[in-house]
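Dear colleague,

Following up on yesterday's call, I've attached the two folding results inline so they're easy to grep. Please treat them as preliminary; we haven't cross-checked anything against experimental data yet. The first protein's sequence and structure tokens come first.
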Amino acid sequence: MTCMDARIDPSAAFNIPLGAAHVIRNAGASARDAFRSLVISQQLLGTTEVLVVKHTGCGMLIFDNEAARDIVKKNKGEAAAKEVEDLDFLTFSELEERVKEDVDWLRSKAVEEGVKVSGWVYEVETGKVRKVVD
């Protein structure tokens, strides 16, 4: 599971051959946002490992819910602002801390026994990954 940022190449970073992994992407690599897909991946398709991969320079680090709602209101108007008034954009201010939180959150949910969950940071500057939590 990784961010939707186009600079991230999880196959190259983890040396994963084509067809060997489900790559679930969303803004900020949010475990909560990806949970439905993760459950399907495990329950129906037999996933045995989950990697939470966030990245340096992530846009989710630079705004909060209020700022996101203000942008929607400015760009799309009052009706659109009403549609997102209760939406949690799942932003964060500490990269490594959020990796740890997402891994802990997943481990407390419906992750199958024996499925390994680890947390990583992808360095967009180098294309390298570093483990944050095992």
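Below is the second protein, in the same order (sequence, then structure):
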Amino acid sequence: MAHIHYRVVQHDGGWAYKLNDVFSEAFRTREAALAAAKRVAAEQHVPGDQTQIEYQDANGRWHTEISEATDRPEADVIE
């Protein structure tokens, strides 16, 4: 199972949470960004619906897979 970490950082004149190199929208306070990050991390645990996905790989080949509804990452917030 994958494990992902959200981090709260200063960004764009305010605060944001980020996952890897992707930032959220900016929040006015660190506390607001932290609350949003905790909400997003908790939502990662909610199972979705089993669905078919299609994607193209780096070599231009298309793949079709079934995405399991219970295959959710472990997520947390690093303060």
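For the second protein, one point worth flagging: The chain has one domain: 3-78.

Best wishes,
A.L.
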